[in-house]
Design brief:
The protein is of the alpha/beta class. Helix content is 30%, strand content 18%. Among the domains are: 176 residues, Dimethylsulfoxide Reductase, domain 2, CATH 3.40.228; 134 residues, Barwin-like endoglucanases (Beta Barrel). Helix 3 links the parallel strand 7 and strand 8. The radius of gyration is 25 Å and the shape is globular.
């Protein structure tokens, strides 16, 4: 909804929505100047003081929305690569070519010859989120890859094993907790990750002002660590050892107190036995954290009235990512902080199923099939992206011959980017849905550019289910899309249709029908007394994601059940509340959320218990490995992976793609501040400027990811001016977290020398 006002230069309007550029989903107010022809252009972005989650806070990325809108390098029309040149073509010609080539390859080589890679910007778009499954199914291939397996897949897998759902992720109750123990996370830069929380600085300040404590365990003194009550350095890749030593201490010192959770938990004694070998004294040589500190931290956590243990990218993207993710929740369970206000809680999103379904569920969707070359396991319908290169260049007759990428840049964001670039060049056909000719899409035969975030409506389906408070906010279109522009949902639906010779409308009908079947008209649905015909009539005939959103809202836990007279949420209700609707603080939800086969919280799931011997073996080599130099990543508040580096307002400023090196290591290796160093791993090498800093612990160097914008054939001039180097030329596709297949991007052994 917009409010109109007269400005000095004419009429303007202000439109309230959520920023879709990162997980924080900050509420923003976009000022639009109205041109004489009635069109408009965005001139300013500010925080929305009435937004129930962000409360007026925004980070610099929000201002990048205008830069993205006006970027001259952004594609406005479909393009086709012919003899190394990009030629603009029409939408009909583009889809005819794409559909024909994908069908030809599938018919000649089988469905396994097709594949898709989905980047994380898709989750920031409502249409892409709800139509993506239809596209993946339309390909008929099990070779699906997403950015999840270079990010949060271990957490999804551990939560599925413990609670029965891959998105049943407990979220720190940051606004009420008294003790926050944080590992491998830097929410001051990320604004929260798997913890949607705008203004982390303000929230962490409030934690300390009410007498709470913030403890950060990280190989780098990050922006978050600098404001903590205590920061402890930890050797990269050893978080699971440290967490197991906390568990050991909780049992050893009789600090275990499950409280009301006890009746729902299985496997406590098995966890006790597993923890015996991981005393703080045994893990200290590997982690670098003294035994006395570990025991003290366990006591303080156990004694806190309300405590939350939280880990993020650093705990996931390591060799023991799934075990680390599991043990974080074990610590919360053993101290009674799971499902407790001030501890960690499960959000209740407005679009989640509206009927509680406690009791036995289904097996974890894991290892139902495996990759062709290494036999890496599937999780939740996708294969680890660490296998993508080899499935193209080493799988023989079973190789991938055609690839669809959606809002992704895996050459920069996945392991051994050099090998992947060579593999992409060998494909028979590639199509990309993207705004740019970037390091990955330069290999595409066709690029289909969607409208921009300001030119399409949005609702945060994923992040409202990960938020620190239950809220609902609809984001209307700010600017009219240009003539001939296509929203991402329509591109995806048309792709799904053209692969099988049908139109986008058929795909839209199928998606709606499937969603209706899961929401209304049957005893197990949220609205058993509402027929599909009644629901269809209430939803109307308008095609696209807004109709699907209306269905999910009305059938959700706060919905009107398709009866406007009873009150409750609907799309119309959200549109009438432009600042969003506050649905209240997180609350206890067990046993409602438990969906394991046993109907209990499985504290010792076999999938994770089976990986403990591998972790135990790491105790023996941990101390010996201290002579290695280990590489970790880092993130900046002005960036979100690779795709925002072409926006001038975000890319400007001091050089950020630098190698942080501890002074002791710099002296030992002959490195000098502001000079360049060569960083070499098993799979590649890069050269980067050195920043000597005690911010990293000795034996650790840090290089941000998402850079490397000097590749030939790209069309991102601002990014090229701030090219940096691709850290994933150093990450090794053979190094994975074994249960999930997630890539190891933290703790990579490297050699560093002066140039």
């Amino acid at each position: 909804m917009a409010t109109a006002s007269a400005g000095e230069d004419g009429t303007s309007r202000t439109i309230y929505r959520a920023c879709p550029l990162c997980e924080a989903t900050c509420g923003i107010a976009v000022e639009v100047a109205v041109d004489v022809d009635g069109s408009g252009h965005a001139v300013a972005v500010r925080g929305d003081d009435e937004d129930p989650l962000g409360r007026g806070y925004i980070c610099p990325k929000a201002h990048g929305l205008i830069g993205l809108q006006e970027d001259p390098d952004r594609l406005r029309h479909p393009v086709r690569r012919v003899d190394g040149q990009w030629l603009e073509i029409g939408w009909d010609e583009a889809f005819e070519l794409v559909g024909r080539r994908l069908r030809e390859i599938r018919e000649s080589s089988g469905p396994g010859a097709l594949s898709a890679y989905v980047g994380n910007p898709t989750v920031h778009d409502l249409g892409a989120t709800v139509y993506m499954p239809a596209l993946l199914r339309s390909l008929g291939s099990k070779k699906r890859f997403t950015a999840s397996s270079v990010d949060q897949l271990p957490k999804m897998l551990s939560c599925a094993a413990l609670f029965g759902g891959s998105l049943s992720i407990p979220i720190p109750d940051i606004d009420r907790t008294q003790h926050l123990l944080m590992l491998g996370a830097n929410p001051m830069a990320s604004n929260g990750s798997l913890m949607t929380a705008p203004d982390m600085r303000g929230r962490l300040r409030a934690l300390r002002e009410r007498g709470g404590r913030l403890i950060v365990v990280d190989p780098r003194r990050s922006e978050t660590a600098r404001i903590a009550d205590e920061h402890l350095f930890i050797r990269p890749g050893t978080d699971a050892l440290f967490l197991f030593s906390l568990v050991h201490t909780l049992f050893d010192e009789q600090l275990v107190a499950l409280g009301p959770l006890e009746q729902y938990v299985r496997g406590i004694e098995e966890v006790r036995e597993l923890s015996r070998d991981f005393s703080p004294e045994a893990t200290a040589p590997a982690t670098g954290i003294q035994a006395d500190d570990t025991r003290r931290l366990a006591r303080e956590f156990g004694a806190a009235s309300k405590a939350a243990c939280y880990g993020r990218v650093g705990t996931c993207t390591q060799a023991f990512g799934t075990v680390s993710s599991w043990l974080i929740d074990v610590v919360n369970v053993l101290t009674g902080n799971l499902d407790r206000p001030g501890g960690v809680l499960f959000p209740r999103a407005a679009t989640s199923p509206g009927v509680a379904k406690p009791g036995p569920g289904s097996p974890v969707a894991h290892a139902r099939w495996r990759s062709s070359v290494r036999g890496l396991p599937e999780s939740f319908g996708e294969l680890p992206v660490a296998a993508l290169s080899e499935e193209i260049d080493s799988a023989g007759d079973a190789r991938i011959r055609a690839l669809v990428t959606l809002a992704g840049n895996p050459v920069l964001s996945t392991p051994n980017g050099a090998r992947l670039a060579r593999a992409l060049e060998s494909l028979d056909f590639m199509v990309s849905v993207d705004l740019y000719v970037n390091e990955t899409t330069r290999f595409a035969d066709v690029i289909l550019p969607p409208t921009t975030p300001l030119e399409r409506p949005h609702y945060d389906l994923a992040f409202s289910g990960l938020a620190i408070r239950n809220v609902a906010k609809f984001s209307p279109t700010v600017l009219d899309p240009p003539a001939g522009g296509w929203d991402q949902w329509k591109i995806i639906a048309e792709l799904a249709g053209c692969v099988n010779g049908v139109g986008a409308d058929v795909v839209d009908d199928l998606v709606l029908g499937a969603l209706l079947s899961s929401c209304v008209g049957a005893p197990e649905t949220a609205c058993p007394d509402v027929s599909q015909e009644q629901a269809r009539k209430a939803l109307g005939d308008k095609r696209g994601p807004e109709r699907l959103l209306d269905l999910m809202l009305r059938a959700g836990p706060y919905g009107d059940r398709f009866d406007g007279a009873r009150g409750g949420l609907s799309l119309a209700a959200l549109q009438a509340s432009p600042h969003g609707i506050d649905l209240g603080p997180l609350a206890s939800r067990i046993p409602e959320v438990i969906a394991t086969e046993s109907g209990a919280i499985e504290l010792a799931p076999p999938l994770l218990v089976a990986d403990v011997p591998r972790l135990r073996a790491a105790l023996d080599c941990g101390a010996r490995a201290h002579h290695e130099l280990l590489l970790i990543g880092r993130r900046h508040v002005r960036s979100n992976n690779s795709w925002m580096h072409n926006i001038h307002s975000l890319a400007k400023g001091p050089e950020r793609c630098t190698l942080l090196v501890h002074p002791d290591d710099a002296t030992r290796l002959g490195l000098q501040d502001a000079k360049t160093a060569r960083i070499r791993s098993r799979v590649g090498e890069v050269v980067a400027p050195v920043a000597v800093s005690s911010e990293v612990m000795p034996g650790v160097v840090s290089l941000p990811h998402g850079y490397g914008h000097d590749a030939p054939g790209t069309r991102m001039e601002t990014a090229r001016l701030h090219a940096g180097v691709n850290a994933n030329l150093l990450s090794d596709e053979e190094q994975i977290d074994q249960p999930s297949g997630n890539s190891v991007l933290s703790g990579i052994p490297v050699e560093v020398s002066p140039v």
